[in-house]
């Protein structure tokens, strides 16, 4: 049973460029959330997707956008990259019901470096 | 808005000893969920233990247990018989269900080092 998979593992981009990160949720999970984790910090919630719609959004600018496909996989897009976007981007999946019986399952993350 | 505070940026413990990591949170909700996640150098966040707020009994999972004080909004993690493999960042997380969906808020983490 494959867990949450993310690609790529590492990525280096230049300021102003655009980037797309990808995530496949754990089998049986239909909800995908994205988190930004700056060095030495806790994960910060970006947004959550369910049924191909953005259901919740954290305090991130519109430069951060996403998509969910019918197979539940998801993409995170960041436009006009800033140096401050350098971070570990974590994808997490769960059944929508949430709660104690369905905690978040995380991928290994994508390390994005903006130069 | 909910907040989660971990006041210990770093801690160390000798192998086989016991260590307690602190977590406090702020919320006006009456029912919610609390979690401890572990993030080793491999980067993957792994669930350690979970607690539902309306349950008074403290959760335990093998060597890991929590001290949940709802009135004080405190949720500490106790690791008994510490092992070298417990070396990692530990994050406390608050989760609530709302309108058919849910949201997690994480603390800033505690870096735990287990010494041989």
Integer average pLDDT of chain B: 92
Overall outline of chain A: globular
> Largest beta sheet of chain A, briefly?
7 strands, mixed
Helix content range of the residues of chain A, please?
A: under 10%
If helices are DSSP runs of H or I spanning 4 or more residues, what is the number of helices of chain B? 0
Shape of chain B: globular
Assign a percent range to the helix content of chain B: under 10%
Quaternary state of this entry equals heterodimer
Unreliable segments of 5+ consecutive residues of chain A = none
> Beta-strand percentage of chain A?
over 45%
Largest sheet of chain B: 6 strands, mixed
Counting DSSP E segments of at least 2 residues, the number of strands of chain A comes to 11
Tally of individual helices of chain A = 0
The separation of the N and C termini of chain B measures: 41 Å
Q: What is the number of E strands of chain B? A: 12
Strand portion of chain B: over 45%
Order of helical and strand elements of chain A: EEEEEEEEEEE
Question: Could you explain how this protein is built, in words?
Answer:
The complex is a heterodimer of chains A (115) and B (116). In chain A, 0% of the residues lie in helices and 50% in strands. Chain A is mainly β and 115 residues long. In chain A, strands 2, 4, 5, 6, 9, 10 and 11 form a seven-stranded mixed β-sheet that branches. In chain A, strands 1-3-8-7 form a four-stranded antiparallel β-sheet, with no helix packed on it. Chain A is globular and about 40 Å long. The mean pLDDT of chain A is 92. Chain A binds chain B through residues 31, 33, 35, 40-45, 48, 50, 55-56, 88, 90, 92, 94, 96, 98-100, 103-109, and chain B through 4, 6, 33, 35, 37, 42-47, 50, 52, 91, 95, 97, 100-109.
Quickly list its features.
heterodimer, A: 115 residues, mainly beta, seven-stranded mixed beta sheet, 50% strand, B: 116 residues, four-stranded antiparallel beta sheet, 0% helix
Describe the SSE topology:
The complex is a heterodimer of chains A (115) and B (116).
Chain A: E1 5-7, E2 10-13, E3 19-24, E4 31-37, E5 44-50, E6 53-57, E7 64-68, E8 74-78, E9 87-94, E10 105-106, E11 110-114
Parallel strand pairs in A: 2-11
Antiparallel strand pairs in A: 1-3, 3-8, 4-5, 4-9, 5-6, 7-8, 9-10, 9-11
Chain B: E1 3-5, E2 10-14, E3 19-21, E4 24-26, E5 33-39, E6 46-52, E7 60-61, E8 64-69, E9 74-79, E10 88-98, E11 101-106, E12 110-115
């Amino acid at each position: 049973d494959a867990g949450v998979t993310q690609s790529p593992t590492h990525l280096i981009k230049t300021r102003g460029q655009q980037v797309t990160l990808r995530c496949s949720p754990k089998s049986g999970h239909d909800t995908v959330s994205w988190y930004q984790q700056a060095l030495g910090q806790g994960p910060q919630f970006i947004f959550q997707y369910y049924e191909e719609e953005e259901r919740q959004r954290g305090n991130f600018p519109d430069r951060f956008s996403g998509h969910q496909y019918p197979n539940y996989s998801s993409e995170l897009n960041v436009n006009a990259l800033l140096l401050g976007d350098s971070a570990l981007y974590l994808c997490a999946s769960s059944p929508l019901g949430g709660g104690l019986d369905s905690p978040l399952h995380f991928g290994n993350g994508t390390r994005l470096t903006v130069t | 808005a909910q907040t989660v505070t971990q006041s210990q940026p770093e801690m160390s413990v000798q192998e086989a000893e016991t260590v307690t990591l602190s977590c406090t949170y702020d919320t006006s909700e009456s029912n919610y969920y609390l979690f401890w996640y572990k993030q080793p150098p491999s980067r993957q966040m792994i669930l350690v233990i979970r607690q539902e707020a309306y349950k008074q009994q403290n959760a335990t999972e093998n060597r890991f247990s929590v001290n949940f004080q709802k009135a004080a909004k405190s949720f500490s993690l106790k690791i008994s018989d510490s092992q070298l493999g417990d070396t990692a960042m530990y994050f406390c997380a608050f989760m609530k269900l709302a309108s058919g969906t849910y949201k997690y808020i994480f603390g800033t983490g505690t870096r735990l080092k287990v010494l041989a």
